[in-house]
Structure formats: C-alpha cells, structure tokens
TrEMBL record:
Domain C2H2-type per the UniProt entry, residue ranges: 220-249
Name of the protein this chain belongs to: C2H2-type domain-containing protein
InterPro entries attached to this UniProt entry: ZN622/Rei1/Reh1_Znf-C2H2 (IPR041661), ZNF277 (IPR040048), Znf_C2H2_sf (IPR036236), Znf_C2H2_type (IPR013087)
Family to which the UniProt record says this protein belongs: Belongs to the ZNF277 family.
GO molecular function, one term: zinc ion binding
Biased composition (Acidic residues): 285-305
SUPFAM superfamilies (UniProt xref): beta-beta-alpha zinc fingers
Organism encoding this protein: Medioppia subpectinata
Length: 437
C-alpha cells in the first residue's frame, strides 16, 4: 500500500500504486520548426543523459523509467507535457543536490510505500511532481506555458501549410495530380474514394500524413484494422465491405497530424471522431473476398456517392441550411447579418474567424447573446433581442472568443468553417477583374 503525506499535517491519503505505463510509444515526439528537438534529455535530478530506449520507447518513457528506478521519483502525466526537455530545464536547478537538502516537498508530494499496518516490506519514500493545480501551482504554470508555446509554433506551421501554393501531389489511389492547395486533394479523397481523414484546416504535417497513408496502402494494409492482404483488389473490397475507409483511431502515430492534440491535453482527435462515428463492424476472420485482381488505376468511385446535403452550411441563427451563397443571402436578408462585412473584412486572421464562429455557435445554442451575454428563454426570443438591439451586426469582444476552446467546432462537420478563408477575398477579386475589364 502507498500513502501520500500532506505537507502541512500528519494526515495521509491513499494514492495509486507506482507504475510505468504499458504503452512506451504513447504521445510520439512531434517535429515542429522552432521547437526543441533534442534526442536526449538530461535528468532533472542527476547529470545523466537519457535517450530513446533500444526498443524505440518514447523519450518520456525512458526518462520516467530512469527517474523511478534511480531516484524514486516520477512526473505525473508526463505524456501530456508539450516540451519535456524545457520542462526539465526549468526544474533542474530546483532539484540540485545542494538545494534545501533534498527538501523536495515544496514542489512534490511524498509517497510512502508499505505504510499499511499489515505491510512487512521495508518502507520507502517516492516523490511525484505535478497532478494538482491547487497543490502545485508552479508546475501547472510551467506546463501551461510550454503548451501555449508549442501551440503558437504549430499554428504558425499550420498557417504556412494552408498558404502553401507549391503543393503538388498525386492521389494515393488514382493517377490524378492535385496542385496549389492541399484541400483539393483531401476533398478528392473524401468525395471519390470515400477516405475522410478530417478537415484540411485541422491537419498539420499534411505531407507526412499522406506519406504514412501511401506507405500503408502500398503495403496492401487496411488503414483501419491494419491487416495486410495479398492483392490490391482484396484489400479494396475488404475496406469497402467492412467500412474501414478511415484511419485507425487507436494508432497513436496519427496524433501529431491533428491540431486538437495540441489544443487540449485531455481531448484528442479520436475523442472528437468517436462523438460522430457510425458503428464500424469489428474485423473478424477472413472475409472470403475472392475478387479478381484489378488495375491500380481503379479510382474506387464505387466507394461512396456524395450527398449534396453533406456540403450544406447551417445558418448561425436558425436551422436553415444551404450552399454558401444562398446561406449568405439568407443570413443577410432574414437576420441582417452580412458575414463578409461583419466577420471577414474585420478579422484578417483566419483562426480568429474560426474562434468567432465557434463561439457564436455555442452562445446561440445556449440562447445567449454573443455580444452582451444576455440570456433568453427560447431561440425565438433571442432572435428578437438580436434584431432590435442590433447585436447581430457586432463582433463579440476578443476577450470572450479568444480562447483555445473555441478552436473546437461546436457542431461536427460545420461546413461554414470551410468558407472563412476566401469568401470575401474571392468576391473582391471578382470585382477587381470586372473593373479592370
């Protein structure tokens, strides 16, 4: 049995047994321009350099193993730390042997093992840092600061990829080549081949993600259950029949490709996906596919028939849904809300537009005015308030919408978010061309 000693009293509270996670590859290191990419980490207690293990364990796993076995010390939730090297750099001076005579309880909780009345083994004391914002406010501030720094870097990289006009890539499944914008390729994969890996604006390291998918498909490996087949035709038929036209949510190699993993340590891309996933049949024994070998030029057009309604955008204020242009006309006529004038022209940053839409979606769903915060009893009464107050024409205060939570779509597959980048720009370009003509 293990108990934790309260620093301010003689009372004890039970804690879980000390252990190492069984998944040594959890939260793989992400290569980000500008981030600290050390291959080794100096222990925060001793001068030893810890490296990735001989069986490809993650750096965090190797460090946790060293701390636990050599120092009887562990870091809580180590896999959620955005930059482990800089985290150790911060704490190393405070855990130096000459500091406070090893009085680590100012930063850690002391865990006494074999402290129960029936325990006969020798009593040992372990230390754990982190785990409670109330008990360890400095540790919480360090983790939040590192997470925000990592988020800033990944958003810059995402913006760079979104603006990349030199993108050129052949489809994984057919001979078509897509240039200028990665979104064109992802849209093609979803519409023509039924492979939906997510909204391109929520994906980072897209070239590497496509490389990973390409290698698996070339190796005749199902993307979902990761079984390997003897022929292209058999793999294709298996994925079609089983509904395996999606990435394996249990494969953590995909974590680095989704923005949500950098936004919240408690919520990742598989959590969002599972909220809206239809049931996928579990993979059983051999499905008996005896289809003849087909050409690799098969575009798999039989995989899905796109429903036009899937591309409709939903009004910000009511349940009206249509393509983007009819929707803009509806919001302008019915709700006196011109998205180009109110949002696109006033906010140059694409991510701020995303946050405003998600914030407005959430507040209107809660029958609350996005500008003044006034609550209404029904959606109709809220619309009356917005109309007579003129608040529908106003942006919410930045302090209200500028939160990492508002990177998350309020409604899954919110197609309106796809048109926040170039809605006004395309109209202005068209107007300029007409003037020049």
């Amino acid at each position: 049995m293990a108990t934790a000693m309260d620093n301010n009293s003689d009372t004890h509270r039970h804690v879980e047994s000390l252990y190492l996670k069984t998944d040594p590859t959890a939260r793989p290191t992400v290569a980000i321009d500008g981030a600290d990419q050390r291959k080794t980490i100096e222990c925060l207690i001793c001068p030893k350099l810890v490296a990735i293990g001989p069986t490809d364990e993650s750096l965090s796993y190797s460090l946790q193993t060293h701390l636990l076995t050599d120092h009887k010390f562990m870091i809580a939730d180590i896999d959620t730390i955005a930059d482990l090297a800089k985290y150790c750099d911060h704490w190393r001076p405070k855990f130096a042997p000459t500091v406070d005579g090893h009085d680590w309880t100012r930063f850690c909780v002391a865990i006494n093992t074999n402290s129960g009345p029936k325990d006969v083994a020798e009593r040992e004391t372990y230390y754990m840092i982190g785990g409670s914002a109330q008990e360890f406010p400095e540790d919480t501030r360090v983790r939040e600061g590192l997470r925000q720094s990592m988020l800033d870097l990944i958003l810059l990289q995402s913006q760079s990829e979104r603006n990349d006009t030199e993108f050129s890539r052949q489809c994984i499944f057919c001979r078509k080549v897509f240039t200028e914008n990665r979104a064109n390729l992802f849209a093609h994969l979803a519409a023509d081949h039924g492979l939906n890996v997510g909204n391109p604006d929520n994906i980072v390291h897209c070239r590497e993600l496509l490389d990973v998918i390409d290698r698996r498909v070339t190796a005749l490996q199902c993307l979902y259950c990761e079984r390997t087949f003897k022929s292209w035709a058999t793999m294709k038929e298996h994925m079609r029949k089983k509904g395996h036209r999606q990435l394996n949510p249990d494969n953590r190699d995909y974590d680095k490709f989704y923005l949500i993993n950098y936004l919240s340590p408690e919520r990742d891309w598989r959590d969002v996906k599972r909220e809206v996933d239809v049931d996928v049949k579990p993979d059983g024994a051999d499905d008996g596919c005896d289809a003849d070998e087909e050409s690799e030029q098969n575009e798999w057009n039989d995989w899905s028939e796109s429903d036009p309604k899937d591309h409709h955008c939903i009004c910000l204020f009511c349940e009206f849904a249509a393509d983007i242009e009819p929707l803009k006309a509806h919001m302008k006529t019915v709700h006196d809300y011109d998205i180009d004038t109110v949002l696109i022209d006033r906010l140059e940053d694409f991510y701020n537009r995303i946050k405003v839409i998600n914030y407005m979606r959430r507040t209107i769903h809660e029958c609350r005015c996005h500008y003044c915060g006034q609550r209404a009893t029904t959606r109709d009464s809220l619309l009356v308030h917005l109309e007579f107050s003129g608040h529908s024409k106003l942006l919410p205060d930045e302090c209200d919408y500028d939160s990492p939570d508002n990177y998350f779509p309020t409604y899954e597959n919110d197609n309106l978010l796809h048109f926040l980048d170039n809605t006004a720009d395309e109209d202005n370009s068209a107007a300029v061309e007409a003037t020049d003509g």
